[in-house]
Amino acid sequence: NNKNLWIGTTSGGLDKYDPKTKQFTNYQHKPGDTTSLSYNCVQAALETRDGRFWIGTYGGGLCEFDRSNGTFRSYRYNEKDNQSISSDVVQYLYEDSDQNLWIATISGLNLFDKKNLTFKRYSCIPENFFSLGGDYVYHIYPHKDKSKLWLATAGGLYLFDKESGKYTCYD
């Protein structure tokens, strides 16, 4: 975006480097400030085609960053809300060809509904042969068939069918 370089750190939050001014701007979690970065360990960042900027944290869930005013909106795990993100530990962010935002976490795969601001969770169901074999999802890769996604997980490589919600394991 605008030739800025965005850098996620393990404990120092999010940095923006502006090559024109040669200046860094740092964004960190500020306790009590709900518009600050939710956690200072940044694992992933993604600008979606609609111009929105998303940050995945290792402990603070998913954040949407409003670059116009420097504020964040956080989406955190809530055990009482099955439409919240499945974990506050986000590993990877991916936007598919239909502009869907997919989130890889240590508690499964999530699809974010940008209109309703809710999440659909896809996780391991041990008695279901077609479910994810383990919840730790590291990475999401596109498949040549746009209705499918490759998932790198702690339990192996899976092909996820977005239409049926079924997984095929390739361990």
Structure, explained:
With 171 residues, the protein is mainly beta. 0% of the residues lie in helices and 46% in strands. It has strands at 5-8, 14-18, 23-27, 42-47, 53-57, 62-66, 71-75, 90-95, 101-105, 108-113, 118-122, 137-142, 148-153, 156-161, 167-169. The strands form four sheets. It has a four-stranded antiparallel sheet, with no helix packed on it. The chain is globular. The termini are far apart.
Quick recap of the structure?
This protein has about 170 residues and is mainly beta. The chain has no helices and 15 strands.
Rg, Cα atoms, Å:
16 Å
Helical content, roughly? Answer: under 10%
Number of distinct beta strands: 15
- N-to-C SSE series? EEEEEEEEEEEEEEE
**Span between N and C termini?**
37 Å
Per DSSP, the total helix count is 0
Uncertain residue ranges: none
Structural class: mainly beta
Overall 3D form: globular
Mean pLDDT equals 93
SSE layout and pairings?
Elements: E1 5-8, E2 14-18, E3 23-27, E4 42-47, E5 53-57, E6 62-66, E7 71-75, E8 90-95, E9 101-105, E10 108-113, E11 118-122, E12 137-142, E13 148-153, E14 156-161, E15 167-169
Antiparallel strand pairs: 1-2, 2-3, 4-5, 5-6, 6-7, 8-9, 9-10, 10-11, 12-13, 13-14, 14-15
